[in-house]
Amino acid sequence: MRHRTTAILALLLAAAATVLPGPAPAGAAPPSGARSAAGACPRLDARLTWYGNNRERLQELIDRHGRCLPAQRGIPGKSKPLAVFDWDNTVVKNDVGDATTFWLLRNDKVLQPTRKDWRTTSPFLTPDAAAALRRACGTAVPAGRPLPTSGDTRCADEILSVYSDGATTAGAPAFAGYDHRRTEPSYAWAAQLLAGHTPRQVRGYAATARAENLRAAPGTQQRVGTRKVTGWIRYYDQQRDLIRTLHRAGFDVWITSASAQPVVQVWAREVGIGADHVIGVENLRSGGRLTPRLRGCGGDPEAIPYIDGKRCAINRTILGVPPHRAFERQPAHRRQVFAAGDSDTDATFLHDATGLRLVLNRNKAELMCRAYHNGDGGWIVNPMFLEPKPALSTPYPCAERARVNPDGSLGPVLDDRGAVIPDQRDTVF
């Protein structure tokens, strides 16, 4: 009888060992295929192509930080882990700010500025640019009324040149006197050109432009004035899946963008991100209509979500950091666990992420220097999911001229210890 009891006990213990795995090492993530009767973290779609082991790295992040497993859900007072994405060329291919600006010009929605003075549209517009715009667009249209840019190619060309090239059609600089790490005046100007319209009207314009650009075949160009410009946009399936999976795993997912806030809000609905989780360039209002004045950040009235301005906007809007400290890097336990971006405008807020930083390679020097240096192992690089760029033939000049300084000059990129990052080869393409 004793031998039978011992045998039964051994069988029960063996069965328990099969069902209940031993304790994982401290800090280890659940295996990517982990399942349990009580539930498991959602899986990224294995049918979608990622570079190398990037999908596995992202899944490990979700498993480690998500609130999807019973043990993680049960921690009293545990806040949702924060994930922040850039928008243009990160979640979508091409630029929704461009698409909306092009639509405005094709449909006579840019209004004659206050007092017919283009200097009222941006504090950084140069006298040469203001004069060129006045000559091209004239003064016959009353202030606040639509300029006929659908047919007046001279006016459309001048506005497009200032916006897209940062210069007049004659080649004179269009903007000057700004902090190059806190604002990009041409991005801000796209929002400032919305002045005089209501937020509801702008959302309607953005929705119409969105429909046109999603309907157009990849590679489509459209004509604005006398120029041909990009005329199509696509959501990246991989990013759509990643955002959906992060949401299901209990992450707090946000967008930060240097495009106009109402425009990005329209596009973000498609991936399940509400208007209250979109940070963009934000116009101040008067009488229910947008004005050319923008909401600044951290005590700087001209700062927009751009490079260091993105950190400021995240600190202010998501973390509740007071203005006098909003440009400062916050303690690790408060910062985003995950961040994704594609350009130098994203370098600071990606650097702030404490878990993983996903970079789509568009050959942007400062960002790629940090990503390839990968000082703490938390950077992962992926080619663009559509029309990836070829490899650069020369290394990124990290040690001398890859970081833009506030005055616009270029200098070396430094790591967290203050050491110069050496030049980096382009290896993911």
From TrEMBL:
Residues 1-28 form the signal peptide. It catalyses: O-phospho-D-serine + H2O = D-serine + phosphate; O-phospho-L-serine + H2O = L-serine + phosphate. Belongs to the HAD-like hydrolase superfamily. SerB family. Its cofactor is Mg(2+). This is phosphoserine phosphatase. Its EC number is 3.1.3.3. Keywords: Amino-acid biosynthesis, Hydrolase, Magnesium, Metal-binding, Serine biosynthesis, Signal. The keyword Transferase does not apply. Pathway: Amino-acid biosynthesis; L-serine biosynthesis; L-serine from 3-phospho-D-glycerate: step 3/3. The keyword Repressor does not apply. PANTHER family: PHOSPHOSERINE PHOSPHATASE (PTHR43344). It comes from Streptomyces lichenis.
